[in-house]
């Protein structure tokens, strides 16, 4: 089942009265703009599945070989003199695993989804993804249409006047009626602004023509704030919500900084009120009757969970305020937030503060399957473990959640160290998992990279390309002699990565670690394989809207386009494949897998609309360099909120690491 039926669309029917805050014409134009943005988003989702087919070169027995695509490009660039003969299809290696039920289930899902991606099942996935989006789209458009404005006269006065009244702005004062006869600000065809406040944002999210961008800056900020509250009234903040709000910000000719500031202020305000509430077990009920949401009572802060009692503390926390002279009334804030302003448990659920599903129990379940499993706070300098959702102060809470995973460790600090540049715009966690196994893999890779066998093998592979070596299954003899050093820890790591991916999917879907917010995922090496498995599990369960953006670095997984279309179906924002043709170690380690479907960590993804590719040109130490280069990669792909200063620290650490590698060869 998909997530189309969940959410809070049943209890937000109280209309928001914005009389004096906006005019009927502004409301109509906002409705038109929101409809246009969401229709564009719908078309973008549809176009993912309509990507033109890419057909690799045929090998023996009429089997397509996806590695041939990368080889073809090298041939076109003059890097290869000829195509090597493509081998017959190799039987897929039997998955031995570790015998656990979790691994068997995760591996079966991955194989099932990979197989179904090649069949008409992809059409069913498209149908369900679009159905889920339509339900969300109808919800947000309905909320805007429910806005009540009693007068049709433009509000008079200065936008900095008393309350929110009089915020007419400096835009068009005339207007007319649209094609349906409704009032509109337009006195001509809607257009986009000639001078963009944020050109980079406008490039990523091309603005939709509208009249609203010509309004006074404060009015446009107010419209964005209203939109954020209306989105939250749907009782979650999923991936579609954030993509929509970024498009709206661009169309209103506002900057990303303005949006991030408002998003931050709203998240901290909501979290502040949620922390003032104390969940109380309902009394006087039988256990089987007490399975629903818990009641919330007044905490020391004075807020209560009863109806209409949260609007005042929400306003006191800054919700509804644009600046000192422009703010929404208590009743207006309550109307915009709908049920979120009436029921305290909904605020708690947004941030994962759920008495029914405590975080500690979720982590206990995870640790039974994956040793050392933990979420480490990156916004805490000590990197402390996250065990209780109510332990995090309101100022550390965000509506945007990022989970980062390391896939190969040189020391225990590498669980956190590669991700220190992710910044404070998001609520960021590093996943600690299988530390011993990942340390063993890191140690094995270090041993091989520093060996003379690798030095000579690298030169031989470079002379003919990693793709030729994979397709011909021809490897330098010195490298094969030391293969056991890395094959065993890698094979174990692949099994554990699939288990970790399944556990991560459960933490997001079943346990709601993140609450009712979407999650972004970043990982390299085996962690990218864990993310791959997580997304496959979400696709199999039709769990749309839970994932915002994803970056997969050096991924040991197929590059087949339809597989990546399946992944993209559950990613609302960016899906970035980071690869390098110089990652010879990855190619060698992946040689026993079914390479006919390609290797994502070695080549770009083709034929999958919406999937971005980023090529890392130089990997001095091969696959092991990714743990040092993550900051540079995130900066280069334009990851939102990334702090570029962290790259300088990474580069300073990279030089001595490279010298150590050379001196020991």
TrEMBL record:
Compositional bias of kind Basic residues: 162-171
Domain of life: Eukaryota
Location(s), subcellular: Membrane
Record bears the keyword Transport: no
InterPro entries recorded: DUF726 (IPR007941)
Biased composition (Basic and acidic residues): 283-292
Signal peptide location: none
UniProtKB keywords: Membrane, Transmembrane, Transmembrane helix
Main location, first listed in the record: membrane
Sequence segments annotated as region (Disordered): 147-189, 281-302
A GO CC term assigned to this protein in UniProt: membrane
Name of this protein: Membrane protein
Origin species: Tolypocladium capitatum
């Amino acid at each position: 089942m998909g997530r189309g039926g969940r959410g809070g669309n049943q209890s937000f029917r109280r209309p928001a009265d914005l009389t004096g805050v906006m005019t009927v014409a502004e409301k109509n134009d906002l409705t038109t703009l929101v409809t246009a943005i969401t229709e564009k988003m719908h078309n973008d989702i549809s176009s993912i599945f309509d990507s033109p087919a890419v057909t690799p070169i045929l090998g023996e027995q009429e089997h397509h070989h996806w590695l041939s695509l990368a080889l073809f490009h090298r041939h076109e660039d003059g890097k290869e003199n000829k195509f090597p003969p493509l081998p017959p299809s190799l039987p897929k290696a039997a998955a031995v695993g570790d015998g656990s039920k979790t691994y068997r289930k995760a591996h079966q899902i991955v194989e099932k989804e990979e197989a179904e991606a090649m069949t008409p099942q992809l059409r069913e996935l498209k149908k369900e993804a679009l159905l889920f989006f339509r339900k969300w789209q109808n919800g947000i458009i309905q909320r805007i249409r429910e806005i009540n404005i009693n007068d049709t006269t433009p509000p008079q006065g200065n936008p900095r006047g008393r309350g929110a009244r009089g915020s007419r702005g400096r835009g068009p004062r005339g207007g007319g009626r649209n094609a349906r006869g409704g009032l509109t600000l337009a006195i001509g065809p809607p257009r986009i602004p000639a001078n963009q406040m944020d050109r980079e944002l406008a490039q990523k999210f091309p603005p939709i023509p509208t009249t609203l961008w010509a309004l006074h800056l404060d009015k446009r900020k107010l419209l964005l704030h209203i939109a954020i509250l209306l989105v939250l009234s749907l009782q979650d903040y999923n991936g579609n919500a954030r993509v929509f709000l970024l498009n709206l910000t661009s169309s209103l000719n506002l900057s990303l900084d303005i949006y991030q500031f408002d998003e931050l202020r709203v998240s901290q305000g909501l979290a502040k009120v949620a922390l003032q509430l104390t969940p109380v077990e309902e009394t006087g009920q039988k256990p089987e009757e007490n399975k629903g949401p818990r009641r919330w009572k007044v905490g020391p802060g004075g807020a209560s969970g009863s109806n209409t009692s949260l609007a005042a503390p929400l306003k006191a926390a800054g919700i509804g305020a644009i600046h000192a002279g422009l703010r929404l009334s208590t009743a207006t804030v309550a109307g915009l937030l709908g049920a979120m302003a009436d029921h305290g448990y909904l605020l708690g659920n947004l941030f994962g503060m759920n008495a029914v599903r405590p975080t500690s129990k979720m982590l206990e379940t995870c640790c039974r399957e994956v040793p050392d499993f933990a979420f480490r706070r990156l916004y805490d300098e000590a990197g402390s473990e996250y065990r209780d959702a109510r332990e995090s102060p309101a100022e550390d809470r965000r509506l945007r959640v990022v989970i980062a995973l390391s896939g190969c460790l040189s020391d225990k600090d590498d669980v956190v160290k590669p991700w220190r540049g992710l910044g404070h715009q998001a609520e960021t966690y590093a996943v600690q998992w299988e530390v011993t196994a990942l340390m063993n893999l890191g140690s094995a890779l270090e041993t091989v990279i520093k060996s003379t066998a690798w030095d000579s093998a690298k030169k031989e592979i470079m002379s003919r390309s990693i793709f030729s070596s994979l397709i011909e299954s021809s490897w330098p003899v010195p490298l094969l002699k030391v293969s056991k050093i890395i094959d065993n820890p890698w094979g174990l790591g692949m099994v554990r990565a699939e288990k970790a991916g399944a556990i991560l999917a459960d933490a997001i879907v079943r346990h709601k670690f993140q609450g009712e917010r979407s999650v972004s995922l970043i990982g390299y090496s085996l962690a990218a394989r864990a993310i791959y498995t997580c997304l496959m599990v979400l696709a199999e369960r039709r769990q749309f809207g839970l994932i915002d953006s994803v970056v997969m670095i050096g991924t040991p997984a197929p590059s087949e386009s339809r597989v990546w279309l399946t992944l993209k179906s559950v990613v609302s924002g960016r899906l970035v494949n980071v690869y390098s043709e110089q990652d010879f170690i990855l190619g060698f380690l992946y040689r026993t897998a079914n390479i006919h479907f390609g290797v994502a960590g070695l080549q770009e993804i083709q034929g999958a609309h919406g999937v971005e590719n980023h090529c890392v040109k130089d990997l001095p130490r091969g696959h092991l360099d990714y743990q040092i280069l993550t900051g540079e990669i995130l900066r280069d792909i334009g990851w939102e909120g990334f702090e570029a200063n962290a790259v300088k620290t990474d580069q300073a650490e990279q030089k001595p690491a490279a010298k150590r590698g050379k001196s020991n060869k």
